[in-house]
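Marked as duplicate of an earlier ticket. Keeping the data here for the record.
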Amino acid sequence: MKKFFKVLLYIVGGLLTLVLAVIIILWIKSPGKAQPLTRPDGDPLPASISTIEKINLGNLDQYLIIRGADTTRPVMLFLHGGPGSPEIAVMRKMNPALENDYLIVYWEQRGAGKSFSKDILPESMNLEQMISDTRELSEILIKRFNREKIYLAGHSWGSFLGILTADRYPELYHAYIGIGQVARQYRGERVSFDWIKEQAEQRNDEKALKRINNMTFPDSLAADSNTWINFLRYERKYVNKFGGGITHDLDGMWPVIKMVLDTKEYTLRDKINYGRGSMYSLVNLWSDIIHNNLFNDIDSMQVPVYIFQGLYDYQTPSIVAKDFFDQLKAPEKAFYSFSNSAHSPLYEEPDRFNTILREEVLSD
């Protein structure tokens, strides 16, 4: 018996040591400080900017991470996806070159990432407030950087927030850039659900097919976000597994989690809050996404519109985004399909994505 307890003590001690070592490593990798843009020799670029700033929007303190190789370049306000999933970590890892062409403002939106707080009132987490925050921030950036207008880019949920803001306040923007464009998400979820069934059948994946056939697709009038979240928890697992999720070759969320954990702009507390903010935002904002239909709400825009869509995207299916684009009127518009991408062409095919922005969007 003594020997058993001695072995148990060693095991528990070893586990505690391992946990402590992980915490120390994460703490060291989490200074919460802006990281400079540098030359190949490690010296900072003289005309660059890299800051973390707190700003009050809609009577709530929120955070910006501003980065650009040249402060004279056009300003882009980047609206992350989720809702509640800031993308500075993924951008820094997968497409840092975009910061050479734009001065990018990564806004950690109300309730997300560095801007998460348990004190944020749920009733303030709504689409109208998010549009108001976006408009207010855009006006601040125009004034601060002495610009006539800025560019507005949105990925996934950010594309929904972005196009609604650009439609309402066109005087603030040179152009709107949608990536993984949300248009009619209820239809998109139906397309996605049918697709994973088809993929499971084609792959003879009996385990997946059994699980999918036991899932109940939510009714169009389902008002409870938890009904949808419980559905999406399993549905997205198969969307990612079959190559239609965040990226075409990503099966599981660990690579994204690792990028967040490696991000030095975040403190350890920010990294813990990242997941909390993502779930909090999803619970409070999903109803706005699933119950809105941009086909009915927006038939024309007063700014140029550029849509970037992965061919394999089954989070915001390409067929829905293309139908929305085709009926949309705009002074200038273009739809770019990426044949090797799913939901994130800006990360999956960054060279082509950046070239289009540089040679076609900026030139227009």
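See parent ticket for discussion. The radius of gyration is 22 Å.
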